[in-house]
Specification:
With about 150 residues, the protein is α+β, with helices and mostly antiparallel strands. The chain has seven helices and four strands. The structure holds inosine-5'-diphosphate and magnesium ion (MG). The site of inosine-5'-diphosphate has 8 residues, from loops.
Length: about 150
């Protein structure tokens, strides 16, 4: 197994629409393990660091104000192939192109309000986790259900 950690975040539109529980519940039911969670408003400078790869693109300024516009639910989830599994559950960046059954496909209408962020590679995950969480905030524990999730 390739146990991985990924950084996920219910974006401000997801929080305002009351979808935190619904979204986290999907990941929990799938079998992902919660390693860390934090409810916070992202300071502009932190948003700029997180989305640094998009600096200079035409949507960058609106992306930074959107992601800082209200609280987000920041999460670290763990599981076998967690990065790709979670990206699949999120759906494509544009909710209109996301398959029904995915989070963006079920709840979103436009790219600028697409409800959720998820790391796109294990390397991005490590970088993003370190932006939002201190090492001691990542909780180590045994989960008894693991023996019924993994063979
Ligand atoms: P991802 O979130 O699916 O990884 P990225 O291409 O990394 O997609 O873009 C980061 C975020 O920037 C998107 O989730 C979305 O919130 C926003 N974004 C990307 N492209 C556009 C756009 O064309 N218009 C408005 N917002 C965009
Ligand atoms: Mg991305």
């Amino acid at each position: 197994m390739a146990m991985e950690r990924t950084y996920l975040m219910v974006k401000p539109d997801g929080v305002q629409r009351g979808l935190c529980g619904e979204i986290l519940s999907r990941f929990e039911k799938k079998g992902l393990k919660i390693v860390a969670a934090k409810f916070m408003v992202i300071p502009k400078a932190v948003a700029e660091s997180h989305y640094g790869e998009h600096k200079g693109k035409k949507f960058y300024d609106s992306l930074i104000s959107y992601i800082s516009s209200g609280p987000v639910l920041a999460l670290v989830l763990e599981g076998d192939g967690a990065v790709a599994v979670c990206r699949g559950m999120m759906g494509k960046t544009n909710p209109q192109e996301s398959a029904p059954g995915t989070i963006r496909g079920d709840y979103g209408m436009v790219t600028g309000m697409n409800l959720i962020h998820g790391s796109d590679s294990p390397e991005s995950a490590a970088r993003e986790i370190s932006i939002f969480f201190k090492p001691e905030e990542l909780v180590e524990y045994a989960r008894s259900s693991d023996s019924w999730i993994y063979e």
